[in-house]
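We include the pair:
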Amino acid sequence: MLVIHESLSDVDMSATAEKYKYMKDELLHFLFENLYNLCQLEKEIYIRSVQLNNEKLDLGIPSHQTHPHDKGLWAEYKDRYREMIMPICTETLIARGFAGSFGEPAEYDYLNTGCEKIFFIMKSRSRAVVEIHYEYGIGKMHQFVLQLKDGEWKINEKNYGFTSEIDRWHKDHI
């Protein structure tokens, strides 16, 4: 269940040209469904990692050492993540890296718990920006730049920031 979909009528489109407002639902659905799938994968891998960590005691492995299956779990995570992002991200974004960590909460867990604000900004027919403000202890933001490439929408950039620095963005990986 995507909690974030419940608030799609509250999306701020004040910076979107009138002629592109109709694109909001299609592009937000594309973005949120794909981020939700990545979030579910991260949660699954995290749970399995915790299980491996808990097994170490039974196997007599010291807590500071890795489980023999850790490398395989990381490889599976990277492969499955790659498979999921290849059709939805540009090579530019993929080249920045992906699947470098997992944890609790997952990177896109705000899709399940809700967010503070969503902004949809579209000023040309081939580029849209989605900004999501959420809170995990402190106010955080994700910005996704979507680009129309060869007739298909793809995530071209991901940035992060903090709501205390509203106009400052830092390059990120998917």
Strands lie at 117-124, 127-136, 138-149, 152-162, 170-172. The radius of gyration is 18 Å.
